[in-house]
Amino acid sequence: MHMMNLRSFILIPETSNAAQESFETETIAEPPRSRKIALCSRSNTVGFLPSLVSLFADFTTLDTVVDHRCVATITGDRGSQINSLVILGDYIYAGTGCNSIIGVPTDSIRVWQRTTMKESMGFGAGYAAVKALVVGGNWILSAHQDQRIRVWGKSGKISTNGTRRSKQVSDGYGQTRRDLVDGDDGQHKLIASMPTLRDYIKAFVAPRNYVQVRRHCKRLWIEHVDIISMLAIGGTADDPILYSASWDRSIKVWRLSDLKCLESFKAHEDAINALLVSPDGLLYSASSDAKIKVWGSSGAPEEEEQRRMPKSKKTSKHFLIASLEAHKASVNALSLCKETHGEKFALYSAGSDKDIVVWEMEHEIRQMVPKGTLKGHRKAVLCLSSTADFLCSGSADRTIRVWRRSGASSGGLSSHCCVAILQGHCGPIKCLAMSFSDEDHCVLYSSSLDNQLKVWNLTVSMTVESVKDEGRGSAVNEPVASLIAPWRFKSF
């Protein structure tokens, strides 16, 4: 039997030759004006493959280019991966997965000065590995593998004029050196561990405070019984609330004014991987059960409203509003992107199905609905970070993609374009953190299972050329060293 030519069944657009040539990558030397990096790569690639229907549409104008450069690489000198990144003021904090080496306690939270990336004195030595970090006011809250939450406060300004100590640092090019890190002893101090001892004393006597966690095991309801995977801050400025999510499928609510556990409820049928509080006060949770759930807080409802509420919701402070289902596998990360000029925002969810789903509010039904899917990653998408109109996604395929959102502020359908692909990590991207220094410049911090922390400078520029239906690969303004995607995804 003759083998059938599979090519006859594949519909190839006129731009296929240009697209095929676009995957050729050329490595060039860095211009003499910069000595921060030795090499940069230029490549004109298709950033992601849209649906087949959009291949026949005229190419839209590509009006944004992102020049990206890796300006620093920090390798974990203890072989420990970074599980969480947060930014507080002029410093970036990293929660690591290692708390000792050869029996000697090491810092579970490391600190760098953002402008110089000079390492300051870390803290948390001797405690379990950190799984999540969040900033609450001037506090750093950390979730540890021992199922405890710890609250850290700064005892004074982190100063580079204080005590300096020697520490082994890798520059990311295989060169290891002894360097001086800045900071004074006691610059960060442990304020409390949650649940607090006071909560334990109040709860352990009454049998009603124990819940069944396994067949022959009961635990206090204020305790998580598995790894705490995520933390989120909600409430108001006067009364902040901390949410903690765990692989035990529950969410706990903590009042930060007195560190008291107010509530605990089962949220999903599988491990919870992400938590997020929206500007309107709603809580979003994502789980390995492939669902995103939206939770509302009843607070103190009006008397008339309380009569209409179901009996089960009268006693519960948080209740389920909606269950969002669009992923085919575990949902690993959530992110909100608010319009630059406007009040609307989009919700992004990343899953192990390699997709990023875009959710927007449907005002007629007052609920988030899926508006489209961003495709391009070849493996599971593990983390998201967004600011202004840009979204960054990190994947197990070891790449970071930068997406630009446009069109929503004009009242029409929003469109998304992949404007850059960042390569350099040797392992799956674990977490991302972004900060804007001005309207056209952004700094991205990324960490991977290769135990490296990378710092990227992203510069946004506008192109003059436009891409039409002439089959051209991309429009690039020299000397841009980035991966440009002329294909656009449109919401449907």
From TrEMBL:
The keyword Repeat applies. PANTHER family: F-BOX AND WD40 DOMAIN PROTEIN, F3I6.5 PROTEIN. WD repeats lie at residues 265-295, 374-403, 422-466. Keywords: Repeat, WD repeat. InterPro entries: JINGUBANG-like, WD40/YVTN_repeat-like_dom_sf, WD40_PAC1, WD40_repeat_CS, WD40_repeat_dom_sf, WD40_rpt. It comes from the Eukaryota. This is Uncharacterized protein. Gene3D superfamilies: YVTN repeat-like/Quinoprotein amine dehydrogenase (2.130.10.10). The keyword Cell membrane does not apply. PROSITE patterns: WD_REPEATS_1 (PS00678), WD_REPEATS_2 (PS50082), WD_REPEATS_REGION (PS50294).
